[in-house]
Automatic annotation (TrEMBL):
Main location: membrane
Organism listed in the record: Limobrevibacterium gyesilva
Cytoplasmic side: 1-15
Cellular localisation: Cell inner membrane
Protein name: Cytochrome c oxidase assembly protein CtaG
This protein's UniProt keywords: Cell inner membrane, Cell membrane, Copper, Membrane, Signal-anchor, Transmembrane, Transmembrane helix
GO cellular component: plasma membrane
Residue ranges annotated as Periplasmic topological domain: 39-206
Length: 206
């Protein structure tokens, strides 16, 4: 008596494989999207909280002016790939807490062709950053200077009077605002200096 040689039917490929592949693609795409979004989100977080020495930015009005003053110093740095001369027009000012002030930086393009730069900034000591409010500035915006062109960059700011009543900042008598100008990523790519363009990030300078 012959035994049956009928083979068991092959299992059909489950639709779950396609669903799994689509899910993995979605996760990867989401991670890529988050990596691009992380930088501007982090910058927004820092600007809102003062984290990492980032002064707050926005049109918020001062709660009022008091007689106590604080010294604000201005620092300027230029990445070596940017052929600019960049300096503050004032080294230091003494301002009343809560009083809005205007200060200026000055730049000149030393190159024989147009050059585009972008500035980053920070405040020291870091613990004072949440009390330093910039209502207008030139940071994170591309600035293009023609050969030998000079430009003045204004900024407006005020220091929250609450800095004097916070035990952690009551000893702060001087705040330093530092700007660093880098060559923009697009400009650095065109000039062949991308590898040395500096630590600034693409989404911030587009």
């Amino acid at each position: 008596m012959k035994q049956s040689t009928q083979q068991a039917p092959r299992p059909k490929q489950p639709r779950g494989n396609a669903v799994l592949a689509l899910s993995l693609f979605g996760v990867i795409a989401g991670m890529v999207g988050l990596s691009f979004a992380a930088v501007p989100l982090y910058r927004a977080f820092c600007a809102a909280t003062g984290y990492g020495g980032t002064p707050k930015i926005g049109p918020a009005a001062s709660p009022g002016v008091i007689a106590q003053t604080i010294a604000v110093r201005f620092n300027a740095d230029t990445n070596p790939t940017l052929p600019w001369r960049f300096l503050p027009e004032q080294n230091e000012v003494h301002v009343k807490l809560g009083d809005e002030q205007v200060a200026f930086y000055h730049a000149r393009n030393l190159d024989s062709g147009p050059v585009t730069g972008v500035a980053t900034y920070n405040v020291t000591p870091e613990k004072a950053a949440k009390y330093f409010h910039k209502t207008a500035c030139f940071c994170f915006n591309e600035q293009t200077l023609a050969p030998n062109q000079e430009m003045q960059f204004p900024l407006s700011f005020w220091v929250d009077p609450a800095i004097a009543s916070d035990p952690s900042t009551a000893d702060v008598n001087t705040i330093t605002l530092s700007y660093t100008f880098f060559r923009s990523l697009d400009d650095a790519a065109r000039s062949g200096a991308l590898a040395k363009a500096g630590p600034h990030v693409g989404p911030l300078v587009r």
